[in-house]
Amino acid sequence: MPPVVEVSNLSRTFDVSKPWLNRVLERAPKAYLKAAQDISFSIGKGETFALVGESGSGKSTVAKMVVGLLAASEGEIRIDGVDMRKSRNTAAMRGLRRRIQMIFQDPYASLNPRWRVDRIIAEPIRAFGLERGEQAISARVGELLELVRLNPRDGAKYPHEFSGGQRQRICIARALASRPEFIVCDEPTSALDVSVQAQILNLMRDLQDEFGLTYLFISHDLAVVRHMAARIGVMYLGRLVEVAKAGELFGNPQHPYTRMLLEAIPDLNMTGRPRKAVEGEIPNPINPPPGCSFHPRCPLANERCRIERPAFLTRQPATGVACHAVEEGRA
Ligand SMILES: Nc1ncnc2c1ncn2[C@@H]1O[C@H](COP(=O)(O)OP(=O)(O)OP(=O)(O)O)[C@@H](O)[C@H]1O
Ligand SMILES: [Mg+2]
After folding, report:
1. For the ABC transporter domain, which residue ranges apply (predicted)?
2. Within a domain: residue 92?
């Protein structure tokens, strides 16, 4: 079965120059920030692929490009074989729009505070003309509220009358309203209490099983990702440094950055494994280090790492790593 989502060599550069007059007076050159560079991955139908990485590594930038909220500078996004960048207004593209939805980190900011919940959830149903007549629409809204384990009567309330976890349920109900097949989730539980987090993650997994949903799941939290994803991509400074199956990534991490992230996870099994804090800071993305951009923080870095950027080496289909030390067997 071909993958539903195919992202190849996707890049996005932001112009972060000062205003023209400042540049002229200070003789400052234009400045560009490469938020995402050369990102390639694919997601099979019904699969969850996760992107992890520290803040600023470019996860949200990739998510926004995949759903079409942000234009890509370079690269290709194919969903069910339709090229999202080339087919802006074609019928194929209009059909796709209904089938792709996004869930954001901040459930309150993504809900209109002046609309009642039933109107919020009905909006995609109306926009895509999925039900005929007010009665059918309100029945469907009730059904969606029940799907996310809320009460159909909750539709009469406003977003501020709910807790954070309940609001994220409303966002999920709205996302499901258009009967999507592919959902991009950008840190859907990061703003929530840990206990509520688990409930929402379990709900998302149940919904995935029920409707055969495909997820691109984004989080900075490896424990969350482990719970959700079959395959994981680790991002560092706008690039994918390692892609592996979840079991492989946690059992046998390759890239020194992945190892560093894993060593920082609290040891819940109390095996006595020493826990190491993540060392160093992410360099300025406007002026990234030459060679491998991780080399200033890498315990294995040598001369080659400081000069030459490691290529992403595919190991098995759809997995791989970009690291000289791994390639040379020094890791
Ligand atoms: N519209 C923009 N204009 C300029 N720079 C931007 C813009 N959006 C993002 N960036 C920059 O691109 C880089 C990647 O940002 P992005 O939001 O994708 O990171 P992230 O991995 O989602 O981080 P977080 O975990 O904090 O959400 C950051 O350095 C950010 O400052
Ligand atoms: Mg983000």
Report:
1. 5-262
2. no
Q: What gap in Å lies between CA 323 and CA 311, rounded to an integer? A: 7
Residue 123 domain flag: no
Residue closest by Cα to atom 2 of ligand 1? 14
Query: What is the total count of domains within the chain?
Result: 1
165 alpha carbon – ligand 2 mean position (Å):
19
> In testing the pocket of ligand 1, which one of 61, 190, 286 has its CB within 8 Å of the most ligand atoms?
61
Reported for 241-244, long-range contacts at CB under 8 A and 24+ positions apart, including other chains, are: 241/294, 241/321, 241/322, 241/323, 242/320, 242/321, 242/322, 242/323, 243/41, 243/318, 243/319, 243/320, 243/321, 244/319, 244/321
Q: pLDDT in tens for each of the 331 residues of the chain?
A: 667 899 999 999 999 988 888 888 988 888 899 999 999 999 999 999 999 999 999 999 999 999 989 999 999 999 988 888 877 767 777 778 899 999 998 888 889 999 999 999 999 999 999 999 999 999 999 999 999 999 999 999 999 999 999 999 999 999 999 999 999 999 999 888 888 999 999 999 999 999 999 999 999 999 899 989 999 999 999 999 999 999 999 999 999 999 999 988 766 566 666 667 777 778 888 888 999 999 999 999 999 999 999 999 887 778 999 999 999 998 7
Domain span at residue 15 reads 5-85+185-327
Atom of ligand 1 nearest to the CA of 54: 25
Residue 179 lies in a domain: no
Around ion ligand 2, which residues have CB less than 5 A away? 60
The protein residue whose alpha carbon is closest to atom 6 in ligand 1 is 14
In contact, 85 and 76? CB cutoff 8 Å: yes
If you measure from the C-alpha of residue 56 to the centroid of ligand 1, how many angstroms do you get, rounded to a whole number? Answer: 5
Closest ligand 1 atom, residue 58 Cα: 18
In a domain, 53, yes or no: yes
